[in-house]
Write a structure and sequence with these properties.
CATH architecture of the largest domain: Alpha-Beta Barrel
Number of strands: 16
Number of helices: 16
CATH topology of the largest domain: TIM Barrel
Helix content: 25-40%
Radius of gyration: 21 Å
Bound molecules: zinc ion
Distance between the termini: 34 Å
Length: 405
């Protein structure tokens, strides 16, 4: 065993270790940290000596939360749409009135790099304060080749200069911008022949996501874009059946995707295909509820053995939420997921959706990204959904307390 820097002991350790049942709880547990990674996990009585020992007094220690689906880089807000929706307007109606994704394009395109990074980092401060230590960030609010590259370069700049959260960038084909609806075939070709290769060349993202739905990309366009991504060695995932099922779940299974996200509308055959291909179903309850959509078929996903993740969908239109514990609560209430399912959804299964081995667990070799809570029961976190920041005693990033912001 390497020299141990820190031991955290007398903790209820939620390992989320796939080799253990459920959440992999160790009631009188400890973990040892060396060089920013977990070097040992076990019973507190067996803990190795360390330079620094932290006693948790029987309270809960979990992996840092993993938010595997966000659109966190954008400018402007759409509070007006929130008010319209509250007064009864629908998503497609708001889009027809010039709202929706298109309403975020203009302020995002107009913002400087520094402005975009400052806005992003303000959100990341909140994200970390709510216990999220790994976050996926999609591009998708410029929708030109150069503009999408710029957004991903801003994300990369932020990732290089900050001490957490860990950032996983994704190129998102979000929709055809209003100025290109007359030549959408040419736009899709630009994505396939210019944008995807440039992203792969510069290493700006690890995966490509396509919004395959009514009003976004068709199944054939999705196949073309994700095919180009696979050709360049990038992982693929998709927004699937938020409004209408276009058959994307089957396509993602065929392509060996990491995840299918949303899934308010998905066929039994699509679920079976996802199960066979080992694709994670990413649940986005905040957006679902805000848009007043039907709940995805949780019982069928569970019965088919599909791993379910839970994410914030942080975006200015349907879910402006940096707090993953609130999604944990919505998953366990509105979505009918068990507390264990919801917790695995923001830890191990979310990391799987990002293709990150070990992250989202407290197992040997995993990064020492942790949350020490001021409660003992994992159910307390979603149960007291309004108090997550005061329930958090400390967030550790790579074995060190994350600096307060
Ligand atoms: Zn999304």
């Amino acid at each position: 065993m390497p020299d141990i820097d820190t031991v955290i002991r007398d903790a209820r350790v939620m390992t989320c270790d796939p080799a253990r049942a459920g959440l992999g709880m160790i009631d009188h547990g400890a973990i040892a940290i060396a060089n920013g990674a977990i070097a040992w996990v076990g019973e507190a009585a067996d803990a190795p000596p360390a330079r620094r020992t932290i006693e948790l007094g029987g309270r809960l220690l979990t992996p840092g939360l993993v938010d595997c689906h966000t659109h966190a880089i954008f400018a402007g807000d759409r509070a007006n749409e929130f008010a319209m929706r509250a007064a009864g307007a629908g998503y497609l109606e708001i889009a027809a009135a010039g709202g929706g994704i298109a309403a975020t394009l203009m302020p995002t395109r107009a913002a400087s790099d520094d402005e975009l990074i400052e806005l992003l980092e303000g959100r990341l401060d909140l994200v970390l304060g709510h216990g999220t230590t790994t976050i996926e960030i999609k591009s998708g609010y410029d929708l030109t080749v150069e503009g999408e590259l710029r957004l991903l370069r801003c994300v990369a700049r932020s990732a290089q200069t900050r001490g957490g959260p860990r950032i996983v960038p994704t190129l998102l084909a979000h929709l055809v911008p209003p100025e290109r609806t007359g030549d959408r075939d040419a736009f899709v070709r630009e994505l396939c022949d210019q944008l995807v290769p440039a992203v792969a060349r510069e290493g700006l993202a690890t995966s490509v996501d396509v919004y395959c739905d009514e009003g976004a990309f068709t199944l054939a366009e999705t196949r073309a874009i994700l095919g180009a991504a696979k050709q360049r060695g990038l992982a693929v995932r998709g927004h699937v059946g938020q409004f209408r099922d276009l058959g994307a779940a089957d396509l993602l299974a065929e392509l060996g995707a990491l995840s299918g996200d949303h899934l308010e509308q998905v066929t039994d055959a699509g679920i079976a295909a996802m199960a066979r291909a080992g694709i994670v179903a990413v649940m986005l309850p905040g957006a679902c509820i805000q848009l007043r959509l039907p709940v995805p078929p949780i019982d069928k996903l569970r019965a088919a053995g599909v791993a379910m993740a839970v994410a914030s969908d942080l975006n200015p239109g349907s879910s402006y939420c940096e707090a993953l514990p609130i999604q944990l609560w919505l998953a366990a209430t509105h979505y009918g997921m068990t507390v264990d399912e919801a917790w695995l959804g923001v830890t191990r299964h979310a990391a799987k959706a990002l293709g990150l081995a070990g992250v989202g667990t407290l197992t040997v070799g995993a990064p020492a990204d942790l949350v020490a809570w001021r409660c003992e029961d994992p159910a307390t976190v979603p149960y007291r959904y309004g108090a997550s920041t005061s329930l958090i005693d400390e967030v550790y990033f790579a074995g060190e307390p994350a600096p307060p912001r």
